[in-house]
Amino acid sequence: MSDWHTATVTARTPAADGLTDWVLDIGGTPLVGSHAQPGQYVQLRLPGGEPGMFAIASPPAPAGTRWEFLLKDEGALPSALLHLPVGARVEVKRPEGPGFPMEKARGRDLLLFASGSGISAIRPVIACVRQERHAYGRVTLYFGARTPVSFAYQHELEQWKADGVRVLCTVSRPGASGWQGLTGYVQAHLGEERLEHAIAFVCGPADMVQDVMAQLAQRGVPRSAVFLNY
Questions:
Q1: What's the pLDDT at 100?
Q2: What is the pLDDT of residues 91-144, one digit of tens each?
Q3: Name one GO molecular function term (predicted).
Q4: Tag placement on the chain: N or C end, fewer CB within 10 Å?
């Protein structure tokens, strides 16, 4: 039996500057129910082409037939996927990676760090938190983007806040945008709250991940409490 399964492109909508919400229908394939943990990723390819890795941006759903992705218009494969018409077929493998261990975060304060398209792996974590908000302590999202128009899921941020997630957005290159919020990188905004007993989930470029881990270590968060999705 082939490891690759055929899925159908069902939607694509602009998400932010250079980012697109992109949805696959996996109905009728063995992939239904295979997405077990938020933060997992899959290999996608055009039929017979070279594959690439993409995080699933929607939460696990036992009977769900839609997988959402956040595609960055950068590189040959993402660009090719973004130019497919709705109804086109792509090939996809089963989800890979450990994802983020929600069970370890229960009863603890949860720190979420995402930069750019890295929010795609953190968004399903937030969906799981919102389903059982009482099961977690303080939940804070540190969300970084290059410019004010580079934040994906902007229309969801207020709902996340309303459901008890503290959201801190910071821009590294505000330029002449008139941005009034935080500036700089996410790791610069940890504040003064006690972090020793928190759990952290981190997704973003390698240098951002390393800097966040270094800051957390300085603040007393053990490496065993910091999780990446790979």
A1: 98
A2: 999 999 999 999 999 999 999 999 999 999 999 999 999 999 999 999 999 999
A3: flavin adenine dinucleotide binding
A4: N
The full length of the chain comes to 230
Confidence at 190, pLDDT banded by 50, 70, 90? confident
Interval 57-71 mean pLDDT: 96
> Which DSSP string do the residues of 41-79 spell out, in sequence order?
EEEEESTTS--EEEE--S---TT--EEEEEEES-SHHHH
- Give the position of tokens 């992939």: 31
Contact between 34 and 58 under an 8 Å Cβ cutoff? The reply is no
Question: Taking the model in full, what pTM does it have?
Answer: 0.95
Candidates 181, 72, 78, 201; CA nearest to 128 is 201
Q: Report strand pairing: 165-171 vs 139-145.
A: parallel
Task: Tell which residue, 73, 80, 33, 38, has the closest CA to residue 55.
Answer: 38
Residue 42 gets the label, from left (phi > 0), alpha (psi -120 to 50) or beta, of: beta
Domains annotated on the chain, with CATH:
5-92 (2.40.30.10), 102-227 (3.40.50.80)
